[in-house]
Amino acid sequence: MFKWLDPYAKSETLYHFCGVLLPYLMISSVLLLLLGNIWGLAFTPPDYQQGDSYRIIHIHVPSAIMSMGAYAFMASAAFVALVWQIKVAHWAVMAIAPIGAVYTAIALITGMAWGKPMWGAWWVWDARLTSELILLFLYLGVIALNGAFSDRQVGAKVSSLLTLVGVINLPIIHFSVEWWNTLHQGASITKFARPSIDPSMLWPLLISILAFAVLLGALTCLRLRTAILVNEQHRPWVRKLVGG
Amino acid sequence: MHFSSFTDFLAMGGYGFFVWLSFGITYLLLAGLIAVSVFQQKQFKQQLKATIAREHRVKQYQEQSI
Known about the structure:
By secondary structure, chain A is mostly helical. Chain A is built from nine helices and no strands. Chain A starts with a helix and ends with a helix.
C-alpha cells in the first residue's frame, strides 16, 4: 500500500492529482447541497414537535458532523506529518484547518438560530455547545500556532502536535449528550441503532451530509494546491508551471 | 411539495426568520470560504509570475552589461 501511496507524497504529483479531482468534487458538492437542502426545506413534512424550525437540521447536522470529520481528517494528516516527516501532510493540516473552522462556526451559528425558538436562548453553557466551541478554538489555535514561530519548521511541528492533542475533544463532543445532562437532543443518526428519524427526513439529511463531506474534499484540494505552490515556489516545476 | 404557497414557504410556519438566517449565513460563509481560497491561489500565481518575470529581466540586463 505504501508503494502505491508513495508518489502522492511527492508534491508535483499531488498538485496535479488534486487538480484533476477538484472540478468534479466542487460541482458535485454544490449539486448535492442544492438537492439535499431544497428537498429538506420544501419537500419533507414538518416535525411533530418543532414544526418547520427543525428544517435547520439540514445544515446544522451536516456541518456539525463534518466539523468533526474535518478534524479527524486533519489529525490523520498531522499524524503522518509528525511520524513520517512528510511536509505535504503538514500543508494538508493547514489547508484543512480553515475549512474545519468555518464548518464549526456554521454548526454553532445554526445551532444558536435553532436554539432561540426551541429553547428560548441563543446560547447556553451546555456540554455539547461548549465542547463544539472548544473545537472552534482548537482550529483557530492550530492556525495561529502555525504562524507564531519565526522558524516555520517549529511552527509546523507544534501546530501538528496541538492537532493531535485536540483529538481528545472529538469523543467528548460526540458523547457529551450522554455523559452530561444537557438541553441538546441526543444523536439521531450517528449511533449503533436504527436512526430515530423518519426516512422521509433522513434521505435529504444524508445527501446534505455527503455534500458537506465532498465540499471538504474539494476545498482541501483547492487549498492544498495553493499551499504546494507557495511552499515549492523555488522549485523548477512550479517556475515552469506558473512562469512559462 | 409540503407548502401550499410560496408565502407559506417563506414563513416556515412562523420560524422563517430563524430558518432563513441559518441558511443565509451558511451559504454566505461557504461561498466566502470558496471565494477566498480561489482568490488566494490566483493572487499567489500572479505574484509568482511577476517575480519570475522580474528575475528574468534582471538576468537579461546582467548579461547585456557583461
